[in-house]
Amino acid sequence: MKIPYKRFTFIMEAEEEIHLPSYKGSTFRGAFGAQFKKVVCALKKEDCRDCLLKQRCVYAYVFESHSPDDANILGKVNSIPHPFIIEPPEEEKQRYLAGQTFSVGLILIGEAIQYLPYFIYTFDLLGRNGIGRGRGNCRLQEVHTVSPQGDTQLIYCSKTRKVESFSKECIDLSQPILSVMEGSVSNAIQNTPEEITLRFLTPTRLKYDGKLMIDLEFHIFIRQLLRRLFLIRHYYCKDSLPEAGLPGEGYHRILIDDARSIGIKVSNLQWCDWERYSRRQDTRMKLGGFVGDIVYKGSISPFYPFIEAGKILHVGKGTSFGLGKYIVVD
After folding, report:
1. Which intervals hold domain CRISPR-associated protein Cas6 C-terminal (predicted)?
2. Which terminus of the chain, N or C, has less C-beta within 10 A?
3. Phi/psi class of residue 90: alpha, beta or left (left: φ > 0; alpha: ψ in -120 to 50)?
4. The model's pTM
5. Can you give the pLDDT at residue 249?
């Protein structure tokens, strides 16, 4: 399983006073979605599900995640993940004066990487149209790539308005999956008691048996993480090798079964309630989730590669808003 991706940082400069909420994910995601459709949609009054152009439409590819045609072979799949993640400014600052800058992170996944110019143009447009309370204007100054080591490369600036070439990154889970299929995971489980602390930085929404979870058993976390990774690879990484089993089969089943042996040592997860208004759906959406630390104890080593992948690609629902972001605490 190989998942190409690339991380970018967009540097925005306020041109007048801007007021934003403490968590800015819904603001940027909502403003971006509306502007993105204006930029790329040819038939703006058509419902995407019935549109003649949906198979070749950038907007439909990036934003419309209805149940796919082959959902019956994948189990219960009501929607598929979006191939992008907007990571809003982590600071809780709510007031930006003219001349002050802030950064917005963007992760593009698989074939969506080729659409970066659309994302750049849309961020520039949403800034000029205004964001936040009072619709304060801002300007896209620069776009940088960010490597896994934290190195940055300037690939776009407002003066030249040209996108420079860049290299992709790749999450390669082929060897960890092969180890699972060959049975080496079970041997490791018997011999390597460990601990791992996960810190959820943004509200994380994980469902199990139809219920949102806060008592996060390790097997539930791994189950949802594997499912997300599978769906991303299946729908957005067509050049990857065929998958070794469907969700619930093959290495998925082995890992989920083995994950049941991992226990919770300490949990300091807390529920964080918030909601956003969706103009497209004309409704208020509750998007609460848990944040905080949880410590698992057991044989963690076989799961590390998948946990590391989730650090990049997030986990759970609402990831395109920046939800489900976590780190591993040393």
Report:
1. 198-326
2. C
3. alpha
4. 0.89
5. 54
Count of other CB atoms within 10 angstroms of residue 20: 22
Q: What is the pLDDT of residue 251?
A: 81
Residues 18 and 132 sit within 8 Å (Cβ to Cβ): yes
Q: How far apart are CA 126 and CA 111, in angstroms?
A: 24
Q: Are residues 19 and 132 in the same domain?
A: yes
Planar angle of CA 286, 226, 113, nearest 5 degrees: 80
Please tell me the predicted confidence (pLDDT) of residue 12. Answer: 94
Tens of pLDDT, residues 177-216? 877 777 655 554 455 558 999 999 999 999 998 888 889 9
Q: Per DSSP, which regions of the chain are E strands?
A: 2-14, 18-19, 84-87, 95-96, 101-109, 138-146, 152-157, 169-172, 194-204, 207-208, 211-212, 263-267, 270-272, 275-278, 283-286, 289-298, 326-329
Do 59 and 79 contact (CB within 8 A), yes or no? no
Taking the C-alpha atoms of residue 6 and residue 167, their distance in angstroms, rounded to an integer, is 8
Domain that includes residue 201, residue range: 178-329
Name the phi and psi angles at 138, rounded to 5.
-145, 170
Please name the residue that has the structure tokens 């304060």. Answer: 136
Residues of the chain with pLDDT under 50: 73, 188-189, 245-246, 248
Do 222 and 158 lie in one domain? The reply is no
Q: How far apart are CA 39 and CA 59, in angstroms?
A: 9
**Partners of 179 in the β-ladder:** none
Q: How far apart are CA 74 and CA 71, in angstroms?
A: 5
Least Cα distance to 6 among 126, 153, 157 occurs for 153
Same domain flag for 80 and 197: no
d(CA 144, CA 9): 5
